[in-house]
Predict the 3D structure of the following.
Amino acid sequence: MSVVVANPKGGAAKTPTALLAAATFGFHRGGYTLAWDNNETRGTLGMRAEPAAHQQTVIDLLHRIDDFLATTGSVGQLAAFLRPQSARFDVLASDDAAGSMEVIDDEAFGKLWRALSRFYRLIVIDTGNNVRAANWQSATAVADCLVVPTTVQRDVADSGLWMLDHLIRTGRADLAQNAVAVVSCAEPKPDPELLQEIVERYRKVVRDVAVIPYDGLVRAGGRIEYDQLAVETRRAWLMACSSIIDSLALGDQE
């Protein structure tokens, strides 16, 4: 199953959403979960995850992808490109080399997704900000569930709703209607009226809406470790992921 996290507005909490969804699934389901930074150039998933002993990224894996498309590639060999996390999931980071000009296009995404699907039961895919990017379109094409993150800001919420309308108009109404919106509070005391307004607007379009409370660890912008989150944050993410599972189950029945 593939869960795609998307909102074309920067600052929508896409990366924390992808990371914490994967962490919650990994912690409660026990492995076979991957968080993949599918930014076409440089994303920040690798920066916010726990580090590994290497600096390999999706570009390094792409250079060896034929090994994993064939039966010769093993999970042990694949581990050399991944960053294992304490919450029992793995991270595949995007390229962050200064001066690098390599871009993940639709063909590259397809190869990576087919290879990674051999080894993982659940792939949570972080995306960039360009709905016209080939790898963004490829990700939504294989999505079993769409997660739309937003903060309690009107412009960020509007961007996510615009994207849902874009998907409906381009033949993916099923993906939009079965989506889960995740509203993250970036401040300890968000505007309650604005929060309620955003929740109600999304409820008219998507299958469910989850609200994630403010957490200083997430807001700080640094590394996120699941066991360092507040209890309220972990509980809210468990409820959000339960809703994602429901969407996956409904999509699988269609």
In short: The first strand starts at residue 2 and ends at 5. Strands lie at 2-5, 33-37, 83-85, 89-92, 122-126, 145-151, 180-184, 208-212. The longest helix spans residues 231-253. The chain has a mean pLDDT of 93.
